Amino acid sequence: MANASATVFLSLSLTFAAACSSKSDETTATTSSTTSSTTGGGELVTCEAFCTAILKLACGKDEKATCLAQCEQNAQSIAGCSVELSAATACALPTLACDADGKANFDRKESSLKCSKEIVAFESCATCIPTGDAQSCHSCSATKCCAERQAVYADASAVDYATCKGACADPLCADACDAKFPSIQQKKSATEACEAMKCLVQCGG
Fold first, then answer.
1. How far does the chain reach from its first CA to its final CA, in angstroms?
2. Are 181 and 128 in contact (CB under 8 A)?
3. Which of 76, 121, 170, 171 lies most in the core, judged by the most C-beta atoms within 10 Å?
4. Per-position DSSP letters for 102-132, written without gaps between them
5. How confident is the model at residue 46 (pLDDT cuts 50, 70, 90)?
6. The whole model's pTM is what?
7. Is residue 191 helix, strand or coil?
C-alpha cells in the first residue's frame, strides 16, 4: 500500500473496508487544530503540533504554512470525527518519514499494522460524511448508502481485516485477506449494489 500524504494530517483511508466501488474515488480524511486525543495521556494532537513534527524531519520540500493551511481547511469537512481522527493520528505519528520526493509521509503499511483499531474507528465515524466534490462517488455514497457503509465497519472482523490488508504488498495477499473475511466482502458487495442503484452516474456506472 502506498504512503499516505502527511500534508493533509492523516489520509489513511481504508477504502478496502468500506468506500466506493473500485471504479470510484477514495475517501481522504483530515483533522482540526482543536482536535483532542484520548491517547498519549490525553494530549492534544493539533495541526500546529503535526506540522511542527513534519518540519523536524527536514525532508526538504515541506512548508509549514502550507501544511497548516491545508490541515485547517480540511478540518471543516471532518470535524464531527475529530476525536477519532486525533487518536489515529497520535498512533500513526511515529511512522512519519521522508519519501523520495522530499516530503514527509506516513508509512501506510506500518500505520495500518500498528493502528488498525484507531483507523477503523475513525473511518467508521467518517464514512457517512460527504467530503470534496458534492458530485463525487464518495459524497453520493456517503449520503445515500450510509447504512451499507457503516455495516462494514460494524462487522466484528473489521479490525482484523484491516490489519490483514495493511500487511499486504501485492494483489495476491490482498485477495487472500478478502477470502479470509467473507462477511466483510458481503457487506462491501451490499455497498457497491447500493452505489450502482443510487449513485450510478457519480460512481461511473
1. 26
2. no
3. 121
4. S-EEE-HHHHHHHHHHHHHHHHHHHTTS--S
5. confident
6. 0.78
7. helix
